[in-house]
Amino acid sequence: MRAGDTAWVLISAALVLFMTPGLALFYGGMVRAKNVLSVMMQSFVTMGVVTVLWALGAGSLAFGGDAGGGLIGNLGLAGLNMRTLPGFHGLDVSPLAVMVFQMMFAIITAALISGGIVDRVRFSSFVVLIALWLVVVYAPLAHWVFSPEGWLAHRGVLDFAGGTVVEINSGFSALAVVLVVGRRRGWPGEAMAPHSVPLSLLGAGILWFGWFGFNAGSALGANAVAVHAFVNTQLAAAAGLLGWLVVERVKEHFPTTLGAASGAVAGMVAITPCAGYVDALASLLIGVVAGVVCALAVRLKFRLGYDDSLDVLGVHGVGGLIGMVLLGCFATRSVDPAGANGLLVGGGLHFFGVELLAAAVTVVFAFGMTWLLAKAVDATMGLRVTPEEEWRGLDLVHHAESAYSMGGTGRVGS
């Protein structure tokens, strides 16, 4: 074990965890004032639920020794009692540090789903859904792609930091729950403008900061690949920001601050699977493509009629697909000799094909399994709040608090 490499992975794990409070601020600013604490609480509760379940066995299902066919891990790592990680040969960092790092990935992925269903979901039902989803959807996908023993990893799929497991997974899982729970009452006719864009900008800044740990930490060491991933993250974020603003300027004539934040996030989403495998110029191209395409994709919900409240599908689902497809085009062994050459860098169709396969499998599995879970929770507990509760706001209904108490304590009856 190399102390410096282990220290970098632990620092990166802390940065990734910091992204979840950042996401809470990002989402919180984009909802109406009566639901701020509700959406932030959904992000925070995932830190508790996912941590406990990851330690008890979900992490082992993702990274434990293969239980057959590369489909799921065994429970040999339950309780985080480990000396090695199956399949990770020649690992220079503490296996426990890697497991904690991956725990933070699971937390932020679960929290992302909440953005699609704000304003209308019961808190207790959300907790149960996320707990089931972690075990049934996230853990298998993580095993397939992130574990060297997974079936997609065996086919040669590259995904540096989670274009499939985190981004496509969260986007299409959110869509599945959205379709089960239905639209917010009054959408799209009623104005549901963000109550605090500055709050969202602060959250976006924290996400940007944490993403360096998300991507560069996935090198699992303080090495040259980590440097490339760090630089590529910054380049793609900046290019995505500018690409989104261009679309807004052309279509609405006003570049917005929320658009700038969303564009940066879209760029970082798309570079996530690519960060340690592509060069700087490819990163700029990936970022700007993501900014433009995601800005157009979020507008489709009005045409198609699905109420993905905070555009989890349009930014994370679509951005993840862009990243996986362009990784298949621009990956180069000059950045990481252990990687591959993409279709436009002298590689053949095989690598491009397996990247498309991984993306397609993730879409189908994440959407299908999450839809079944959401239907089951809805049938047994009920996912949707009542019309009266939705009108009052979930902060008061579920948490007996108000984000803005105007000098009071913020609790009901105070």
Structural features:
single chain; 414 residues; mainly alpha; Ammonium transporter fold; 15 helices; 65% helix
What order do the helices and strands come in, and which of them pair?
Elements: H1 3-30, H2 36-63, H3 95-113, H4 123-145, H5 151-154, H6 163-181, H7 197-216, H8 224-251, H9 257-271, H10 280-297, H11 300-304, H12 312-330, H13 349-380, H14 387-392, H15 394-399
Task: Give a verbal description of the structure.
The protein is built from 15 helices and no strands. It has 414 residues and is mostly helical. It has one domain: Ammonium transporter fold (Orthogonal Bundle). Helix 7 packs antiparallel against helix 8 and helix 8 packs antiparallel against helix 9.
Task: Using the CA coordinates, give the radius of gyration.
Answer: 20 Å
CATH topology: Ammonium transporter fold
Order of helices and strands: HHHHHHHHHHHHHHH
CATH architecture: Orthogonal Bundle
Largest sheet: none
Summed up, the helix count is: 15
Uncertain residue ranges: none
Strand content: under 5%
CATH class: Mainly Alpha
Looking at how many chains there are and whether they match, the oligomeric state comes to: single chain
Average predicted confidence as pLDDT: 95
Output the structural class: mainly alpha
